[in-house]
C-alpha cells in the first residue's frame, strides 16, 4: 500500500498519541500579533471555511485523471521514499480546445486537496482544462521533483515547478488542445504561482498569460513565524500541551484515518475534524497551528535527509523501509521553522549559492523579489482578506500598493476561509479573464 511520508509521520503521531500542532518559526519575527490580522471571527472562518449556502455554483461532475510522471532530473531517491519516485498531478480535460489553468496547492499539501477540488470545479465549469499540482513543500514533490531536496526557497521551488509543468504539459494526450495558459495557487501556492510566471516571462517555455494569488504570504518567513508563535501561545513548548490537544481530537482523527488507506493531511480534513470538538479561540488557534506543524515536520524530515545535515537523521545510517519513525516524529513535532532554517535550509543554500548570507536567504523568500513584475505587469492579480492571519498591516498595505489596484481585499475570511465563496470565485474568474476592475469591489 502506497503512503506518503506525510501520512507515515502523521500515523506515527496518532499511534503515539502525539498529534502535534502549529507551525513554523522564521529567522526573524515580523511585526504584529501572533495571529497577524486575525480576530476571533477570522480564526473560526479559517477553521470552518465557506458555509455551504455561500459556495459558488459548481458543476456536479468534473472528469479527473491522475498522471504519474518520472522526471529526468530526479535525485537519487532514499530508500525510505521508495513509494514517491514519480510526480503525481491531476488533470481535468475539456472535450474541445480550451485555456489551461494550472493550480498549485498550499504548503505541505498534495495536488488533490479539498480546496483544489473546489477551484478545479469552478475553473472546469468556466471552460478551462485544469491541471492541479502539489506544493513544492509536499514530500511527494520533494522526492520526485525537487532538484535540491531542501524545500522552502521561492526561486528554487519556482524553477522546479516550472520544469515539472513543462514536462507534464508535453506529456498530455495529443487530443488536448490548449489555447492559453494561466496559473494560480492558494496560500504559499499563490506566491509560487507568481514566481513561476516571472520565470516564464524570461524563459517563455509555457507563455503563461495571467497569474492569480489567493491569500499569499508576503514574506514566507514572517508568516510562518506568526504561526510558530500561535503554536507557542495555544499549545505550549512541551509535550503536555500537544498530548492534551491530541486527546481532544483523537476520536475524530481516528475516524478519518480509518476512512482511507492514506491519512488525510489536507488542512480542510484536519480542520473539519477539529471544528467538531474545539470551541474557544485558543482551541481554534491550536487546530490551525496543527496543520502547519505537520507540513513543517515533513519538510524538515526530507530536507535533513537530502542535505545530510544530521539534525534528526544520522546521514550515515538513514532510515530504511519498515523502520520505526516514532522517535523521529516525536523530535520533529517540537522543532519550529527557525530550527529548520538555521540547521537545514541555511547550511544547504549557503554552501550551494554563491555570495549568499542568512540575511539574503531570508530576503529571497519575500514577494519583493518579483516586486517590479507585480507592480508593472497588469497580468498579476491577488485575492486576500483584511483579517488574514498570515499577514500584518504593513504586508497587506504592500500587496495593495504593489499590485496597484489588481487585488481584491475581502472584509472577512481569515486565511482561505472564503475560498469557494460566490464572490471569491466570480472575482477569480474575472481576474483570469482580464476583466476584473477594482472599482467593482
Q: Can you give the mean pLDDT?
A: 85
Proportion of residues in extended strands = 5-15%
Strand order of the largest sheet: 1-2-4-3-5-6-7-8
| Largest beta-sheet details | 8 strands, mixed
Given the helix and strand composition, which structural class is it?
alpha/beta
Question: Which regions contain 5 or more consecutive residues with pLDDT less than 50?
Answer: 1-33, 260-265
Q: In percent, how helical is the residue content? A: 40-55%
Can you offer a commentary on this structure?
- The chain contains 16 helices and eight strands.
- With 441 residues, it is α/β, with parallel strands linked by helices.
Give the arrangement of secondary structure elements.
Blueprint: H1 5-15, H2 40-48, E1 65-69, E2 87-92, E3 98-104, H3 114-125, E4 129-133, H4 139-144, H5 154-170, E5 178-186, H6 188-203, E6 208-214, H7 220-234, H8 239-259, H9 267-275, H10 281-307, H11 326-332, H12 337-352, H13 358-363, H14 371-376, E7 380-385, H15 393-403, E8 407-410, H16 422-433
Helix pairs in contact: 1-10, 2-10, 5-6, 7-10, 8-9, 9-10, 10-12
